[in-house]
Design goal:
The structure is a homodimer. Chain A is an alpha+beta fold. Helix content of chain A is about 40%, strand content about 20%. Chain A contains 13 helices and 12 strands. In chain A, the strands form 3 sheets. In chain A, strands 2-3-4-11-5-6-7 form a 7-stranded mixed β-sheet, with helices on both faces. Chain A has a 3-stranded antiparallel β-sheet with strand order 9-8-10. The mean pLDDT of chain A is about 95. Chains A and B meet through strand 4, strand 7, helix 8, helix 10 and helix 11 of A and strand 4, strand 7, helix 8, helix 10 and helix 11 of B.
């Protein structure tokens, strides 16, 4: 969304929350599922990440209306071992599974030093930082990844196979905000390529291939072709790792399988998520706090460097009023 | 090393092993340390990775001669919890710590599903795939990373801060070779930039900055400046993660600290290593084998795609005769 070119309306975070809770309840969610989804959307809007906030509501609603997603999901978590947890999301959106399973994951990591959680049968349509920051806010290192549907050509090939395959890590920073990255392993989001096409911009090298499989800097041609992983064959290896963690370790669908099963209603495909928590207090000892602060202080003293996540955290602390696209807001109100 | 331009001599793997065991014993290693080092070097040569084989012996020897590294190290491993192991490398090269600690890590992951090992006070001068493949060969997912000395400018900056920060993942493939990547998070190794300078080649975009901090495709200018992470700010985030895992979680030195402590004798700096093992049987259930095979079979059916690690494994199965630079071989024999 390019806010400069559209009409916006001011709405505060509390109003956003009430609106989406009502929408999701009206669209078939029970209260716990609606609340969990609303919290996910409001935290995205709070952090200024409009692409993961209200912008996603039509997709959520489409998947409730098509019957693909269970708005009354009742996720069940099992300990396979003291450090391996499995959460069956009961075909619901991932947010409610997070609410139930993440505290258990955190407890397991606090006691044992490391623990991992797989979520299966879930629909993930949000950023990953809510889950990794939840862990970092409890002084745990959080790592999460999930797959999607084929959108990215593995290095060397010209056809999509990997999903956009996001990965997020959050590192605790006691007394401050965690250091958090959350990124697709695709070179660029398809939406960004569309905007470049609309605005007549050229793309940097390595973003995508045209319909014939040749590298192209023309966004219109790349839209007929395929995206590449970020960073060539090295980024392709990271995308492979994400795919394997999110599907190989969860036992849920790889991106190519998710494609085969999806009804393409505009919401996310069903799939798995891998989340890991590590307790630095047990691994590194109690000096980890000062040691990591020294590192972050050094890094952020470099001209031009911004610690990952800091822009979002700055938004979070600012005003609670958001300017939202009027058309989007009216569309969402139409779901009531 | 550019084999085309130098005289080489044929030597088989058994001869290489005997030669380096003798060299390391003559340079102050006891038998267990010499054997562990020799195995690391021979497996690199066996896999055709000459940059991590005999090529490294002068560096190993320099660090033994300077007294920096303890050739009679006696690594000690402790269980912090059933799934967190700490190995104090006793100032030795990492190889001997691996020999002692990796089987314990594998056992912990087999029983509990996930486990992590930190190695501290070690000198890592080899590839990472020996440790991750060791785990994958026992049907565990292996992940390893280590830091180095500042060589790479974090995205947005023009000064080195991150190490070359390699990361390796090995995925088990029962009945076949594991799928393994092992890569620096720098855009390119400094040695490769030197070769491009010598041969008059230009560098791709994004490899490095010149001495004034401007992007340059001229390898001679980049050698006066600094390397960049692979893949822009996304690769920089992965390099950050490696640095944090290798130093933040181990409690050992970040790259900028390693620099301050190192004697620059030509060997590696002292530092830590993070190694993790995950048991897919416990996490995903017994169908993981077929599920992952299906994925790998699909991926490798794509024209132009090679599964990471497959070239090395092909070398491993070929002849056991290697052609080694005569000058290097004579230099190594001079250490006897």
């Amino acid at each position: 969304m390019n806010k400069e070119n559209v009409n916006t309306r001011k709405i505060n975070l509390q109003e956003i929350k009430e609106l989406v809770i009502n929408v999701f309840q009206n669209q078939g969610c029970d209260i716990p599922n609606a609340n969990a989804l609303a919290n996910t959307i409001v935290s995205a809007e709070q952090d200024g990440s409009s692409s993961h906030g209200l912008f996603r509501v039509p997709g959520y609603v489409a998947s409730l209306q098509s019957g693909k997603v269970n708005g009354k999901s009742s996720p069940k978590v099992q300990h396979q071992t003291p450090v391996i947890l499995k959460c069956n999301a009961d075909n619901g959106f991932a947010s409610y599974s997070h609410k139930i399973a993440l505290p258990m994951l955190a407890d397991a990591a606090k006691i044992n030093g490391i623990a991992a959680l797989t979520i299966t049968g879930c629909y993930h349509f949000a950023a990953l930082w809510p889950e990794t920051e939840f862990l970092a806010n409890q002084n745990l290192v959080g790592l999460a990844c999930t797959a999607f549907k084929p959108a990215v050509a593995p290095a060397g090939s010209i056809k999509p196979f990997f999903g956009t395959n996001p990965i997020s890590m959050a590192w605790p920073y006691p007394g401050g905000n965690p250091v958090v990255f959350d990124m697709a392993t695709a070179s660029m989001a398809k939406g960004e390529v569309s905007i470049a096409a609309r605005d007549g911009h050229t793309l940097p090298d390595g973003v995508g291939l045209d319909g014939d499989g040749n590298p192209s800097n023309d966004p219109k041609e790349v839209l007929k072709g395929v995206l590449l992983p970020f960073g060539g064959y090295k980024g392709s290896a990271i995308s492979l790792m994400v795919e394997l963690f999110a599907a190989g370790l969860t036992g849920d669908t790889f991106s190519f399988e998710a494609q085969e099963n999806d009804n393409n209603d505009g919401g996310p495909p069903k799939g798995g998520e891998f989340i890991m928590a590590i307790n630095p207090e047990i691994m590194a000892g109690s000096d980890w706090v000062n040691h990591c602060k020294l590192f972050f202080d050094n890094l952020s003293s470099f001209e031009g460097v911004r610690l990952p996540g800091s822009r979002r955290h700055k938004n979070r602390l600012g005003s609670d009023v958001r300017e939202v696209n009027v058309e989007l807001l009216d569309k969402i109100k139409g779901y009531l």
